[in-house]
Amino acid sequence: MNKFHSNYMITMEDIVGEGNDILHRPTLEVMVPPSEEDKETLTSMMNFLKNSQDPILSKKYKLRGGVGLSANQIGLNKRMFVAYFTDEREKEHEYTLINPKIISHSVSMIYLPPSEGCLSVDRDINGFVPRYERIKVKGFNLEGEEIILKLNGYSSIVIQHEIDHLNGIMFYDRINKDNPFKLPENCKSLY
């Protein structure tokens, strides 16, 4: 039976920490259309994000606020994630993506000041994380339909962070090791 059924409430105890090997290797593709189990897991993951952003529920259940959650962050070796956030233009975004891949991207890059954060990383990490300013992503939704998303700005940053998780890459792997605040020439601040 699936632990993460649609009525299961994911808490911080379910979130895998950065030392776990599952976060440092690529995930396996998911069958499309997704199984009922995968659909329920994704629903439970989305509920976690929404709960984590609710001031009352996040305090009651001690949830750290999150904008994205990949399956390997709850210990599942599956290429799927959810994202729920408001961008820099106050537009709300809600995505459930299965087997996502970036199919094109801009040359220009951006970074989120002062740095990115992660539900699996329970410490402050200083440094800029360069990301593509614009991306086009192909994947499948909860119904198994192919979708293509064109994203820019904060949306692009969030989705690249989650796709990195599915590829076994942590956000701090993208920070310049010699100079954490050094950026490529074509990179500017989001704000």
Automatic annotation (TrEMBL):
Cited HAMAP family: Pep_deformylase
Organism: Lysinibacillus composti
Active-site residues, Swiss-Prot/TrEMBL: E162
Lineage per the UniProt record: Bacteria, Bacillati, Bacillota, Bacilli, Bacillales
Keyword DNA-binding set for record: no
Keywords assigned by UniProt, alphabetized: Hydrolase, Iron, Metal-binding, Protein biosynthesis
Name this protein carries in UniProt: Peptide deformylase
Note accompanying the cofactor annotation: Binds 1 Fe(2+) ion.
Enzyme Commission no: 3.5.1.88
EC top class, as a word: hydrolase
Similarity comment: family membership: Belongs to the polypeptide deformylase family.
Primary role: Removes the formyl group from the N-terminal Met of newly synthesized proteins. Requires at least a dipeptide for an efficient rate of reaction. N-terminal L-methionine is a prerequisite for activity but the enzyme has broad specificity at other positions.
